[in-house]
Amino acid sequence: MENNQYKILREMAVDATKNAYMPYSKCAVGSAILTNTGEYFSGCNIENASYGGSVCAERVAIWKAISVNKNIKIKIIYVYTEAGWPPCGMCRQVMAEFADEDLQVVIGNSSGEVDKISFKELLPHQFDHSQLTKISHPS
Ligand code: ZN
């Protein structure tokens, strides 16, 4: 069961690289997520001539899911690049917003090797909504 989920996520992430829009970096990235509702979503990197307007594959997959159901949580996120790059800091922050308690991050490369890391290990001491309850706003 669990292995099948990883297989599906890898296939979706690899497939998503076919639509990667990466004229500047020339690096295709694909990502796929499994949500707590049992749904799968994928995304690819989409670059922009402004560079700052570019978005990573992980965030595209997450935003596709959230745009369908803002209450979902991510159970597993698979990130695929030829070399097996880990998610950038910006994506880790976005993952923190929608992470299930035991979110697993899977990093895949072209030879199929994967690294499975718990999100808590990937982003310890995360900044999330719980931090915002620790301040008092002047009225
Ligand atoms: Zn990123």
Can you tell me about this structure?
With 139 residues, the chain is α+β, with helices and mostly antiparallel strands. It has one domain: Cytidine Deaminase, domain 2. It has helices spanning 2-16, 57-68, 89-98, 119-122, 129-132, and strands at 30-35, 40-44, 74-80, 99-108, 114-118. Strands 2-1-3-4-5 form a five-stranded mixed sheet. A hairpin with a 4-residue loop joins strand 1 (30-35) and strand 2 (40-44). The longest helix has 15 residues, at 2-16. The termini are far apart. The mean pLDDT is 95. The protein binds zinc ion. Zinc ion (ZN) binds at residues 56, 58, 87-88, 90-91.
Secondary-structure element string: HEEHEHEEHH
Task: Round the Cα radius of gyration to an integer and report it.
Answer: 15 Å
- Write out the strand line-up for the largest beta sheet, numbering strands in chain order: 2-1-3-4-5
Give the number of helices.
5
Please write the CATH class name.
Alpha Beta
Which percent band covers the strand fraction?
Answer: 15-25%
Question: Which spans have pLDDT < 50 for at least 5 consecutive residues?
Answer: none
The overall pLDDT, averaged over residues, is: 95
Secondary-structure class? alpha+beta
Count all strands and give the number: 5
Described by the principal axes of the CA atoms, the overall outline is globular
User: What's the helical proportion of residues?
Assistant: 25-40%
Main sheet properties: 5 strands, mixed
Bound molecules: zinc ion
CATH architecture: 3-Layer(aba) Sandwich
CATH topology, anyone?
Answer: Cytidine Deaminase, domain 2
For the record, give the distance between the C-alpha atoms at the N and C termini, rounded to a whole number. 52 Å
What oligomerization state is this entry in?
single chain
- The number of distinct structural domains comes to 1
**Full CATH superfamily name:** Cytidine Deaminase, domain 2
